Amino acid sequence: MALRLPSALRPLRPLRPLATAKPLAQQARWLAAHVPPVTQSSRGPGTAMVFLNMGGPSTVDEVGDFLSRLFSDADLIPLGRLQNYVGPLISKRRTPKIQAQYQAIGGGSPIRKWSEHQCEEMCKLLDEISPETAPHKPYVAFRYANPLTEETYRRMLADGFGGGRGGRAVAFTQYPQYSCSTTGSSLNELWKWRQRLEGKAAGAPLDGGAADGTIRWSVIDRWPAHPGLVEAFAQNIEAKLLEYPEDRRDKVVLLFSAHSLPMSVVNRGDPYPAEVAATVHAVMHRLNHANPWRLCYQSQVGPQPWLGPQTSTTVEDYIAKGQKDLLLIPIAFTSDHIETLFELDEEVIGGSGHAETVKRVDSLNGSPVFIRALADLAKDHLASGVSCSVQMGLRCPGCKSERCAESKKFFANQRL
Ligand SMILES: C=CC1=C(C)c2cc3[nH]c(cc4nc(cc5[nH]c(cc1n2)c(C)c5CCC(=O)O)C(CCC(=O)O)=C4C)c(C)c3C=C
Ligand code: FES
Ligand SMILES: [Fe+2]
Predict the structure, then answer these.
(1) How does strand 253-259 pair with strand 168-173?
(2) Which of 17, 135, 142, 209 lies deepest, with the highest CB count within 10 Å?
């Protein structure tokens, strides 16, 4: 009688030769015909890339609503318990003056056009250089103008992000330098709509877990000295310097101009002045410190003290000292806006009496070097697995805002 071994001890049956084995090219053809490619539908909706910025009125008729939202924002202009009453009053009084400025720059702000272009082009590059997180879907979320954060969040939900299906989104601030009055305000607004549209009502944990199918958010919250940003600024500066005669070129004074901050915000401990200085230093380092320079601040509004020196008086003072070759460099915004096209071009340069020697560097707008920088930055962020920078977790020493506390906790605790 044959001895029957327990199955675990039985010798393995010799493997059948792979009757179906095919040469490589044939295998590839077979795979292409039988295995569905990894597409949007088999991978989920992909990655939402959401550009955050303040926005601007696209037409003169939108100026009133833009200013009304801006003056109602307690993260930008804290007016206490009277915010919702005083804010609209101030904005109403200011509307005709600001409408005239938008009229003078062609009837509206170009920020929507540039933001949509930059985001779409960045997403195309990202699909190539970060295929593992593709497809990348472009969104713009403005704080005070269309498309507002609420509208964009609703569109993301309709496009298949969140709503029980999860999905990954990156909130990418378009302010390179962090201020609580700008990026901080946009993130607080995003957090507010996240709570309203996917928060308690959807049964989502408030600490930012995404196991329940809500959107998994991460944040690119600052990038003041990113090498690609620095390169884009440096190339635009070099191009403009070529417009000065060669014998005067290295004596042109570079005037970096950033939107100012009220001193109350600076003294609260806002990170913006230090980060603007970081950008300026990195750009000057890239230019081999070939020209003398100063950093000045523009666009002060209202009677309270603001961070200086003011750009307009800096230009006047240098001209009075005999220094007429001045090159203005808008350093805290990545596209044209009323403060470049009207305040710098019309008021500062136009009013200087020396428009042939006081010039302005082009804004980054559609610069391919800049768009490549955005894509590189986003790729590194997506690969890093971090939800935001370490800096984001720290509130200003003088911060009293519960909104800041809650939204920072939410974004810092996202599990990716
Ligand atoms: C880095 C950029 C900006 C910072 C920082 C910033 C802070 C800041 N702004 C105000 C008040 C106003 N800003 C206004 C317009 C405006 N602000 C920025 C940028 C920054 N602001 C831009 C690009 C624009 C123009 C938008 C455009 O489409 O061109 C306005 C409205 C215009 C006006 O009434 O003069 C106000 C008001 C404060 C109080 C502040 C810091 C706390
Ligand atoms: S004001 Fe800066 S963290 Fe709140
Ligand atoms: Fe501003």
Answers:
(1) unpaired
(2) 142
